[in-house]
Amino acid sequence: MDGFAKSIGGGGPNVPAGSHPAGGSQAAAGGGATQRTQYPYVTGTSVIALKYKDGVIMACDTGASYGSTLRYKSVERIKAVGKHSIIGASGEYSDFQEILRYLDELTLSDHMWDDGNSLGPKEIHNYLTRVMYNRRNKFDPLWNSLVIGGVKKGPKGDEKYLGMVNMIGTHFEENHVATGFGNHLAIPILRAEWHEDMTFEEAVKLVEKCLLVLLYRDRSSINKFQIAKITTEGSTIYPPYSLKTYWGFTHFENPAQGAVGSW
Amino acid sequence: MARFDPYENNGGTCVAVAGADYCVVAADTRLSVGYSILSRDHSKIAQLADKCVLASSGFQGDIKALQKALAAKELVYEHNNNKKMSCPAMAQLLSNTLYYKRFFPYYAFNVLAGLDTQGKGCVFTYDAVGSYERTGYSAQGTGSALMMPVLDNQLKSPSPLLLPARDAVTPLSESDAVDLVKDVFASATERDIYTGDRLEIVVINSSGTCRECIELRKD
Fold first, then answer.
1. What's the pTM?
2. pLDDT one-digit tens code per residue, B69-92
3. Which of B38, B104, B198 is best to mutate for the A interface (most A CBs within 10 A)?
4. Where is the composition biased (Low complexity) (chain A) (predicted)?
């Protein structure tokens, strides 16, 4: 796999040649030569989400990179889970697909109970935290940072929920979350401009502001985004669209203007 | 390329102070990773029994798993023995639970505190693999080295070197102890990047458990 990736012409992730699954797999008591996840291969970049008046809004781009190659450009990294939640993932895309399979099983069993109750975002978040933590304990992590958002009727009326869990099981609940680069670029904007009970339009504007910064500054982001929302009515994942970008800065037009020297 | 690291330090500091008939447990609410703040409102304190509270700092995934495991074991104890676990009993259970994972530790630095069976304040302090000691007060976490010297100086507790051994609880009143805890957190917040945002203080005494929050510097 490593040799093939390198032969594509500087594409794939920089896996050292002849890499040997060290430590973890051999430490398995009587386990034998089982492979353990060492590096992610096809990865998605940031996911951002915030609570607003009617529920939760979540957004990310539709790209999946293979190291520095932009391999897939129409990947859906936000999916609906049950009636009350949406989940977004950054990191290894195949691990996200595995997580969706786990969630399918979970929601199916939940439906088959036929007891009038359905799993809400808090329960999904808790379940995924346990899954991620347990995989980390086996030194075989699901290489993702997951964002779970949703609305469900609780004792105090419609309760909005937004949480995050990362690949080693660190998890928390907040009014706004972001994964990967979003932590550094989007969260400062969200902390300054988020407020309780934003309208949908305000929330979209704020999300687009963050997505634009990520587009300009995150090398692995692409200009094709999907926004999803979840309210008491259900989840909606909007079709992908692009943001308007501006490159007409004078310094870009004549970059060598102030330079001294031969180039 | 870096190998997968199963641990991360989510930072924060926990403190507990035992008095004659009360116990003060406090922890900041900042959850960090690297140089980022993930949440300014994340509690590190778990109530395990009505007179027993656990405050932990370190790797949050392990901390939550540990607190969950202890809460489950406490419930089983209640069902088997028809009473809630006492603080000293929980102290031994926590030590055993930590040592059980001696060769893949819970990255958690714990302070267990509450009232013992006589109603006196007790504080138990741990390392990551379960060695523990009953003391009059303790601080654990990223700001502990900044706080312990101040607590040593200000709590006026009897020295642990005295013979015959004296109870290590502080002679201070409950409100003085709470004020001191607030001061000590304010000081640590100035110099420890992982400590700050908000301070959660839990006071346990004969009338029950009372929770208070005060703001700390957010930078």
1. 0.88
2. 999 999 999 999 999 999 999 999
3. B38
4. 16-28
Which residues in chain A come in under a pLDDT of 70? 1-37, 262-263
Q: What is the DSSP string of A114-181?
A: -SS----HHHHHHHHHHHHHHHHHTT----EEEEEEEEEEETTEEEEEEEEE-TT--EEE-SEEE-TH
The chain A residue lying nearest B33, using CA atoms, is A170
CB B131, CB B98: distance < 8 Å: no
Does the residue B51 lie in any domain? yes
Chain A contact present for B72, CB below 8 A: no
Say if the Cβ atoms of B6 and A139 lie within 8 Å: yes
Q: What are the percentages of helix, strand and coil residues in chain A, rounded to 5?
A: 30, 30, 40
pLDDT at A22: 40
* Ordered structural domains, chain A, with CATH: 48-240 (3.60.20.10)
Number of domains in chain B: 1
Supply A64's token pair.
């999946």
In tens, the pLDDT along A42-51 reads 999 999 999 9
CATH number at residue B95: 3.60.20.10
Chain B residues within an 8 Å CB radius of A164: 38
Interior/surface letters A139-149, b for 16+ CB within 10 angstroms, e for the rest: bbbbbbbbbbb
Closest chain B CA to residue A21: B3
- Complex ipTM, two decimals? 0.92
Domain-embedded: residue B1:
no
What one-letter code names the amino acid at A214?
L
Domain that includes residue B86, residue range: 13-216
Judge whether B4 lies within some domain.
no
